[in-house]
Write a structure and sequence with these properties.
Strand content: 25-35%
Strand order of the largest sheet: 1-6-7-8-5
Shape: globular
Helix content: 10-25%
Number of strands: 9
Radius of gyration: 14 Å
Distance between the termini: 22 Å
Length: about 150
């Protein structure tokens, strides 16, 4: 599997695997657990990539606890800040122990970070313990259940 787990330092993540050219990658498919209650992975194509057979990539969300999917029509400037302009071509950020993360009950969130992914048509915010990037379609692997702890 390409990529490494989320670093603990914050800032841009996996720029070599997930990037923006003004707008982020195109979402191909969001994968949920069997009951549809927990996000597991997201398949995507980076900007200017068009061949699903050779260009498709995926992000695995490690032990996700909460997700917010915001369509581009209603994304506010406060939600994005200046990071996408200042740190381009990065399109995935570790926002650390954000106010959004801290607004939840903390029982299951001690190891979680706020990860924000800028896609072409949406921003996806996830509280999870890390992210990994891979090539091709997402497939179930032992240990990649993606269920809340």
């Amino acid at each position: 599997m390409a990529g490494t787990s989320t670093p603990s330092t914050g800032g841009p993540l996996h720029v070599e695997d997930f990037w923006s050219d003004g707008r982020g990658p195109e979402t191909h498919r969001v994968i949920w657990n069997a009951t549809g209650t927990s996000i597991r992975a997201i398949e995507y194509l980076n900007p200017d990539w068009t061949d699903i057979d050779s260009d498709l990539r995926h992000v695995i969300l490690e032990r996700p606890q909460a997700v917010l999917i915001t369509p581009e029509e209603v994304i506010g400037s406060d939600q994005l800040g200046d990071r996408y302009n200042e740190l381009g071509p990065a399109a995935m950020f570790d926002l650390g122990r954000s106010a959004w993360l801290e607004s939840f009950g903390q029982t299951h969130l001690a190891n979680c970070r706020h990860i924000q992914l800028l896609f072409y048509d949406e921003v996806i915010d996830v509280l999870c313990e890390g992210v990994r990037c891979g090539k091709g379609r997402f497939t179930d692997e032992p240990g990649d259940e993606g269920r809340p702890a």
